[in-house]
Amino acid sequence: MVYYLIVCRSLTYAQRTAAALERAGISAYIQRSPKGVSSRGCSHSVKISQRNLNNALLVLRRVGLAPEQIYITAGDGSYREVSL
Amino acid sequence: MIYLDSAATTLQKPGAVSRAVARAIQTCASPGRGGHAAARRAEEVMFSCRTELGTLFGVDDPERVVFTLNATHALNLAIRTLVHPGDRVLISAWEHNAVTRTLYSIPEVEVLTAEAPLFDDDATLASFERHLRDGVDAAVCTAVSNVFGYRLPLAQISALCHQFGTPLIVDAAQAAGAIPLNLSELGAAFVACPGHKGLYGPQGTGVLFCFQPLDPLLTGGTGSESRMQQMPDFLPDRGEAGTHNVAGIAGLLEGVRYLNRVGVDQVERHEARLLRQMTDALGDIPGVEVFASDHANQCGVLSFRAEGWDCEELAQRLARRCVAVRAGLHCAPAAHRSAGTLETGTVRVSFSAFNTPAEVAAFSRILRDIVSNKLT
Predict the structure, then answer these.
(1) Smallest CA–CA separation between B246 and chain A, in Å?
(2) Quick check: B286 pLDDT over 80?
(3) How large is the ipTM?
(4) Which domain holds residue B169?
(5) Which residue of B lies nearest to A31 if distances are taken between CA atoms?
(6) Which of A8, A13, A15 has the most B C-beta neighbours within 10 Å, making it the best mutation to test the interface with B?
(7) Per-residue pLDDT at A24 exceeds 80
(8) Looking at the structure, do residues B135 and B241 belong to the same domain, yes or no?
């Protein structure tokens, strides 16, 4: 399944992000970021399905939580950064 | 026991507090350090507590909520962020050692005091304005005196600090949970609260609300940006090195939920009634000097002295009658100096939402009995 990872600077930021999405009816799941997407070391990401990305971006901009980095899964299990 | 020492720690807590602590010990691991269910449960506790605290104090952004060990830890974080060697710092006349000792530990800091008579708002504001006009680098002010229950005119003091561009640190150790506080409206740089007093959490919990960037007091693991050898530059991680007191925070969450459910304004009214009752009752006992306000700017705390009694001896006699109070200088010699009670100290009674008028009546009977027996 293809999904997006919104990489967040901290756990609390990820929790705020996920809470804002859930309030808007968008399923959001917090997980530790894969090592390959967190160049500064440990971080947390919010996982959303492919079909929800546009709505999620609208919601997050509206509440002042615009993401800095988003990754999409590739077919081979790796991640590719999405330009915003 | 008649427990009247809530200004030190509330002993009676909502039942959910101890249950949550036990549950967290059994089920919660380290938040932000793992992807497993036990870490997840801890993370949910932490975020829920930040959010509930935000609701209680009018703070929308849970990242501004930094967990600490207690109010002293929170004040150290705030003071050491804003105050640097050689600075001039203005404090109220009613500060705790958590403020004054921290300030005096910073080299060459000049500490100015906004001297004013006890319970005199006008004189307090005039004194603050005079010093602020002369120029200071930061101001620190307690919201409520831990010795006398004096509720300082905090909104006006904060407005004065804004007027003169002075960052304000608020010590809300006695105010948090006892009087309504909207921190977004207040405009302070930092607000420090204990978790174990009016917020009804366990000991070992505290909170610093941050409205400015924070310098870390401790450095170490945060579960974020682990490759970097500098502390993260974002909140709350910047102020929260090391594993959190998750069990304590789980208890604090239930204490704050209780307050959000009951309403701090309700607690404030309840404690105000008890204070009036206690003031009237003690005022009728010969030889007892009560430090009470005529201006409704006192809350939750009342100090008194009894003629011919050492305050510590009197507190011991009360303890033998199963009454818990606190005597001495209450870690606030500056406040006692301001009130003229530095040499004698006082006996302090302090309330929580769980005290009753019957306890106040019983206390005043016991005190009258002890004091009158010595006089005769």
Answers:
(1) 15
(2) yes
(3) 0.88
(4) 15-262
(5) B35
(6) A15
(7) yes
(8) yes
Q: Is there a single domain that holds both residue B41 and residue B112?
A: yes
Burial of B218 (0-12, 13-18, 19+ CB in 10 A): exposed
Could you tell me if B139 and B167 are in contact, meaning their C-beta atoms sit under 8 angstroms apart? Answer: yes
Query: Dihedral of CA B183/B188/B194/B197: which sign?
Result: negative
pLDDT of residue B34: 87
Which residues of chain B are within 8 Å of residue A16 when distances are taken between CB atoms?
A: 61-63
Q: Find the residue in A nearest to B233 (Cα).
A: A9
What CATH number does the domain containing B336 carry?
Answer: 3.90.1150.10
Our CA dihedral for B303, B308, B310, B314, rounded to 10 degrees, sits at -70
Task: Assign A68 a pLDDT band (cuts: 50, 70, 90).
Answer: confident
Is pLDDT of B226 > 70?
yes
Return the CATH number at B216: 3.40.640.10
With a cut of 90, say whether residue A41 has pLDDT above it: no
Q: How many domains does chain B have?
A: 2
Q: Give chain A's domain count.
A: 1
Q: What pLDDT digit, counting tens, does each position of B288-313 carry?
A: 999 999 888 999 999 999 999 999 99
* Amino acid, res. A16: R
Record: contact A42-B225, CB cut-off 8 A: yes
Over 70: is that where the pLDDT of B376 sits? no
Looking up residue A40, the CATH number of its domain turns out to be 3.30.70.1530
Domain boundary among B262, B286, B304: B262
CB contact under 8 A, B226 and A16: no
Please report the residues numbered 194 through 223 in chain B whose beta carbons come closer than 8 angstroms to any beta carbon of chain A.
222-223
Q: Does one domain contain both B186 and B43?
A: yes
A62 CB near a chain B CB, below 8 Å? no
What is the side-by-side order of every strand in the sheet holding B168-171? B65-68, B206-210, B190-194, B168-171, B138-142, B88-92, B110-114
B222/B366 same-domain check: no
- Do B142 and B34 share a domain, yes or no? yes
